[in-house]
Write a structure and sequence with these properties.
It is built from 3 helices and 20 strands. The chain has helices at about 15-20, 95-100, 115-130; strands spanning about 25-30, 35-45, 50-55, 60-65, 70, 70-75, 85, 135-140, 150-160, 165-175, 180-185, 190-195, 210-215, 220-230, 235-240, 245-250, 250-255, 255-260, 265, 285-289.
């Protein structure tokens, strides 16, 4: 019987490890409560998501970079006679030989979709913890007439189901017809935290057609910068609705973009990378107070 190969827990990944991932490199993937060797095939459309091949299995899957770590190699006695860690950059010759006799993907439970489902469920749980009850968040408009808007709401309850998450929220700006507060269940993918603070003078550095967000009817709406209008005011246009506004700088903020997988913010600098409008939901009767 073959004795198990033992090694201590590896050190943390280098800070620049995610940036160094590229097709052809190898790594280890957190899957089924263990670390599996994978080959990086290609980046996919989502930021920080990679298409991978499980080494030794005829299986391809997708996973975010946060589920990857370097392909650590443990040397019990290094060059100086002391144990050491190193990172394997390419598959070993023995690994390549093993890959020629790949096993069926059915041998790897739960299959090619397992890592994706497990990663999605883990990400949903982490986000639900991030958006705990009592947290103030922003909700993307998904109903006709509200595409491109973000409205604040207070989280009342969280729920995880089938690897996805939902939040029950109470909107700050909306009211039911009887005047009561409007509560609704929203998909986790349409939720983001409150954006960070921005420099008050940021608007003076904008180029024409730069994306922005405009405070209008108690919500923030995606617009494009159309230039200065005099008197300390600025012209913007909402291309989805062909509506023009002239407003003070206090009603403008950067076009913030939330990367849920990395829990980071950046700013859209080009109107060409604007998010696509989501599929419309049935309209519910409500009014802005």
């Amino acid at each position: 019987r073959r004795e198990p190969r033992l090694r201590p827990p590896p050190p943390p990944p280098p800070a620049d490890f995610p940036a160094g991932l590229k097709p052809g490199s190898i790594a280890e993937l957190w899957h089924r409560r263990g670390w599996w060797p994978v080959s990086v095939l290609r980046a996919v459309g989502e930021v920080g998501v990679w298409e991978l091949e499980l080494c030794g299995y005829e299986a391809e899957l997708r996973a975010p970079a946060r589920l990857l770590r370097p392909s650590w190699r443990w040397e019990p006695a290094g060059r100086r006679g002391t144990p050491s860690w190193s990172i394997a950059e390419k598959p070993s010759a023995a690994g390549k030989a093993k890959a020629k006799a790949k096993r069926r993907s059915s041998e790897l439970l739960p299959g090619t979709k397992g890592a994706e489902q497990e990663g999605a469920a883990r990400g949903a749980r982490e986000l639900l913890h991030h958006f705990a009850p009592g947290t103030t968040v922003e909700i993307a408009g998904v109903e006709d007439g509200f595409f491109g808007s973000w409205y604040t709401a207070r989280v009342l309850e969280t729920r995880e189901a089938r690897g996805a998450g939902k939040l029950r929220v109470r909107y700050d700006a909306f009211r039911e017809d009887d005047g009561s507060t409007w509560e609704d269940w929203v998909e986790l993918e349409h939720v983001r935290p409150l954006p960070p603070r921005h420099k008050p003078q940021f608007v003076t550095e904008l180029d024409a057609s730069a994306p922005l967000e405009l405070l209008f009817k108690e919500g923030w709406w995606e617009v494009l910068y159309d230039g200065r209008a005099g008197g300390g005011r600025h012209a913007v246009v909402a291309p989805q609705y062909n509506v023009h506004h002239t407003v003070p700088a206090s009603q403008l903020r950067p076009a913030w973009r939330w990367a849920a997988a990395e829990r980071t913010w950046d700013v859209r600098l080009d109107s060409s990378d604007a998010p696509a409008a989501p599929a419309p939901k049935p309209t519910k009767a409500f009014k802005v107070r």
